[in-house]
Amino acid sequence: MPHPGALLMALLAFLVLGVGPSEAQQAGPDGSRIVGQVVDAASGDPIPAVTVRMAGAGMSRVTDQDGRFRFEGLASGVYTLEIRHVAYRERSVEVEVTGEGMFYQLTIQLSVDAIPLDPIVVSGRRDGPLAGSRDRIEWMRQVGLGTHFTRQDIVDSRASRVTHLLARVPGVQIRGGGQGFGGAGLFLNPQRNCQPSVYVDGIRSPLFGGSVDDLVSLTEVESVEVYRRLSELPGEFADDDARRCGAVVISTRRDVLEGDPFGWRRLATLVGFLTFSFFVGAGR
């Protein structure tokens, strides 16, 4: 007859721990043994590769393809089985061995445990000629530095010239009567009475007292960045004039518009700059 304590232990395991019925039978004179099967609580399917460790006894087993394990040669006492699998919630089950030659059969159910994982951060970086200006504008907007106009902002503004767009920036002055090609003078810091550095596609483009409209037409422009103060000026545009007078950074639609990426306006300005530089150098 099974020992009354073994039957009581099996009943408690079933009611409290969700462990299936445990049958205690005579197992011979060479100690007792525990034989079990680990199954999925939802489907009832056996779970292989489950580690079953007998705490305090220094013994562990791994379930086979049928989810089965066994411990043999056990003396009387209370044994704690720790059941672990990477895809299931860890459990522990106590089995009381109440004499020599007993055989304990267990069915242990495991429930799936959702394993929390750190979120995967994917950062996408744009490619192409305009990648640098777009990434810079996004960053400067996040930290609140400078004033920026994207292509959509330019379209929404209904401005017809670059100076018309810049005139909407607080503190910026556009003065008529420019000395260049008849355009208007641009001043980001009027109190200093100096014109800012102007960069077109990363190349510094002197105005020679003229207008930024002589460099590029608004239809060619993809983005405009205005940096009025040294504290907000990106390092790649921090030349001596920009440190005092600010900078206007223009990116054209080189990867959008077909044809000559420079345009006749910038070409004429470049020729004027080279001519001026030649005569200045010859006069020295």
Description:
- With 284 residues, the chain is an alpha+beta fold.
- It has two domains: 4-110, Sandwich (Immunoglobulin-like), CATH 2.60.40.1120; 131-282, Ferric Hydroxamate Uptake Protein, Chain A, domain 1 (Beta Complex), CATH 2.170.130.
- The chain has helices spanning 4-17, 131-143, 151-157, 162-166, 240-245, 263-282, and strands at residues 23-26, 32-40, 51-55, 59-62, 68-74, 77-84, 91-97, 102-110, 147-149, 173-175, 185-187, 197-200, 203-204, 221-227, 247-252.
- The strands form four sheets. It has a five-stranded mixed sheet with strand order 9-14-15-12-13. Strands 1-8-2-5 form a four-stranded mixed sheet. Strands 4-3-6-7 form a four-stranded antiparallel sheet.
- Strand 6 and strand 7 (91-97) form a beta hairpin.
- The longest helix is centred in the last third of the chain and has 20 residues, at 263-282.
- The radius of gyration is 40 Å and the shape is rod-shaped.
- The termini are far apart.
- 30% of the residues are buried.
Give structural attributes.
23% helix; 4-stranded mixed beta sheet; 284 residues; 2 domains; rod-shaped; 5-stranded mixed beta sheet; Immunoglobulin-like; Ferric Hydroxamate Uptake Protein, Chain A, domain 1; alpha+beta
